[in-house]
Write a structure and sequence with these properties.
A hairpin with a 2-residue loop joins strand 16 (about 305-310) and strand 17. The chain is an alpha+beta fold. It is built from 3 helices and 22 strands.
């Protein structure tokens, strides 16, 4: 009886196990998708040194007062175009005008005194000449001759003194007129007003900036280059420049000047790059200079193979069985329609081109005909 019972239990267990084995789900089949495939390639690419900077005018003038005075007029505003010699602002000139008039009166008085001294000197000279003639005739005493000679010498000395005073008066008048001229602030060259720091009624002091004028014409990108790589930069070097706000196309720049002394704090050199005058640039724009620094081996993939997942660049890379894997990439510099990959892809691997928003991870990829 025990034997029959045991055999029955084993039969039931076997039946249950067999039923469980027959109901086990099969592994899902790998899905297939068609896509255009591209291949990563290792190539020689140029090495670019990127530096940033700001657009400046080739020359900038800070127009400031040279004398103290209240500002009467400011004749320009930011953005106004001015020509060389144009009056930009006017200071109150009442005190300086009075000084100029006083100096002019001093010149007239000195001139009158000089004229009188010249007349006196001529009279003394003619008197001396007559006495010398009488002296040859023994008609004057030595004492009289000595007096006349000394009078002539005194008249000459007085004339020289008056001439010096007249010269000093004229110099004083010239200085007064110069100071009066400082009350009219003019543009030293043609350009554009880029800053206005004062309004009428403000008291101007010597050296105080009132206006800023940028010279019209070619603009420059001023950038800094580290001392460790300054050797690759030279005057006349062509440098592609991209300017934020002026389009994505690179502008042809030319190195115009390398400041010979490095900044001791940053250990970098200031480099000035001339920009084309026809480009839509404005002073103060931010830009990037791209200096050529030789070549290197790099892995390139088409830009169209790069997809963004969030803020991270990725690509679908096929394994040895043709199954797509989503890999995160570290990208380098673009080179035309290709981009350098620093990590994430090896040379010779196949990638899905232009996957758009499709989720291809884990799918077998068949090349589109």
């Amino acid at each position: 009886m025990r034997t029959l019972f045991g055999a029955g239990v084993l039969a039931v267990a076997a039946a249950l196990l067999g039923g469980c084995h027959d109901g086990e789900p099969a592994s899902p089949a790998i899905q297939t998708a068609q896509a255009k495939l591209v291949e990563s390639q290792q190539q020689q690419v140029p090495v670019t040194l990127k530096t940033t900077g700001t657009v400046h005018a080739r020359e900038t003038a800070m127009v400031s007062a040279q004398v103290m005075g209240r500002i009467q007029q400011v004749l320009v505003r930011e953005g106004d175009t001015v020509r060389a010699g144009q009056t930009l602002a006017v200071l109150d000139d009442a005190a300086l005008r009075a000084s100029a008039m006083q100096a002019k009166a001093g010149v007239k008085a000195a001139h009158d005194q000089e004229t009188a001294a010249e007349t006196q000197a001529k009279l003394a000279e003619s008197t001396l000449a007559r006495y010398k003639q009488l002296e040859t005739q023994k008609s004057v005493s030595p004492q009289e001759m000595d007096v006349v000679t000394r009078q002539a010498q005194a008249a000459d000395a007085q004339l020289e003194a008056m001439r010096a005073q007249a010269e000093a008066a004229r110099a004083q008048e010239s200085a007064a007129r110069t100071m009066l001229g400082y009350t009219r602030l003019v543009a030293s060259f043609s350009g554009v007003v880029t800053a206005r720091m004062a309004d009428p009624g403000t008291m101007a002091t010597p050296g105080q900036p009132l206006l800023q004028v940028d010279r019209a014409g070619t603009l420059q990108l001023q950038t800094t280059v580290d001392e460790s790589v300054i050797g690759i930069v030279h005057n006349g070097m062509k440098v592609p420049v991209t300017i934020d706000g002026a389009g994505s196309a690179a502008l042809p720049g030319v190195v115009a000047e390398i400041v010979p002394a490095a900044d001791p704090a940053s250990h970098s050199f200031l480099v000035k790059i001339n920009l084309p005058s026809s480009s839509p640039l404005r002073a103060g724009m931010y830009g990037t200079a791209n200096f050529d620094n030789g070549e290197k081996q790099a892995i390139l993939i088409p830009r169209s193979a790069v997809v963004m997942r969030g803020s991270l660049p990725c690509a679908y890379v096929l394994d040895s069985q043709g199954i797509a894997q989503l890999r995160y990439l570290t990208l380098g510099n673009p080179h035309g329609d290709r981009v350098e990959v620093l990590s994430g892809v090896s040379a010779g691997e196949k990638l899905v081109d232009a996957p758009s928003d499709r989720d291809l991870a884990g799918k077998r990829i068949e090349a589109q005909p």
